[in-house]
C-alpha cells in the first residue's frame, strides 16, 4: 500500500505542518491531531510575521482576509494566503502559504498545503489537500458515510480501515478536481491526477491519471 503512504502523495517541504506528518504512515492518521498541533505550533510563530486573533487563531500579516470571513480556532493562515468573501473556517484548519479559500467555501479539520485552491463554493472537511491541488467550483468532500459506520479506504479491491467516523478526501500534490464533483468518504487521489467534472469518486485513484467515470481511468501520456 505504498501508494497510500504520505511519502507517495506529498512534498512535505510545501507546508508549515511538516511535523504533523512525522511518525505516521498514512495521511488520514493526522486528522485527529490537527487541532492540538495548531495550538502548539501557533505559540512558536514569530509575532513580527503573524497576528494572533482571538483564541488560537494566527494569521500571517501578509495574508488577505475578507471582513466577511467567519474564522474559528484553532486555525493558522499562512503567508500570502487569501480568504475571500463569506468563507467559513470552522476550526482545526491550516491554510498554506499562497493558498486561496474562496467565496462561501467552508472548511473543517483540514490541512491545505501551500498554493492549494478551493476558490468557489467548496466544502472540505476532515481532509488533506496537497501542494497546488485545486477543487473546481462546487466540488466537495463527503466526510461521513450514510450508515455512519467507520470509514474505509478501497485499494485494489480490498477495504482498509481508518478507524475514523469522519474522513473526507486525501488529494496528492497537483491534483485537479472538476467542477461539481463529490469525493466520497475515504477517497485518496494520487499526485497529478485529474478528475472529470460531475464525478462521484471513491477509493484510491492512481497518480498521473485521468478519472473519467467509475471503471474508466486513463493513464496520462508523457509529453514528448
TrEMBL record:
Would I find Transferase among this entry's keywords? yes
What the entry lists under InterPro entries is as follows: GlmU-like (IPR050065), GMPPB_C (IPR056729), Trimer_LpxA-like_sf (IPR011004)
Q: Which domain of life is it from?
A: Bacteria
Q: Which residues form the Mannose-1-phosphate guanyltransferase C-terminal domain?
A: 71-189
> What are the entry keywords?
Acyltransferase, Transferase
Which molecular function GO terms apply here? acyltransferase activity; nucleotidyltransferase activity
Matches recorded under SUPFAM superfamilies: Trimeric LpxA-like enzymes
| Keyword Transferase included in the entry's annotation | yes
User: Could you tell me which PANTHER family the record lists for this protein?
Assistant: N-ACETYLMURAMATE ALPHA-1-PHOSPHATE URIDYLYLTRANSFERASE, NUCLEOTIDYL TRANSFERASE
**Name of the molecule in the record:** Putative UDP-N-acetylglucosamine diphosphorylase
Native species: Lachnoclostridium phytofermentans (strain ATCC 700394 / DSM 18823 / ISDg) (Clostridium phytofermentans)
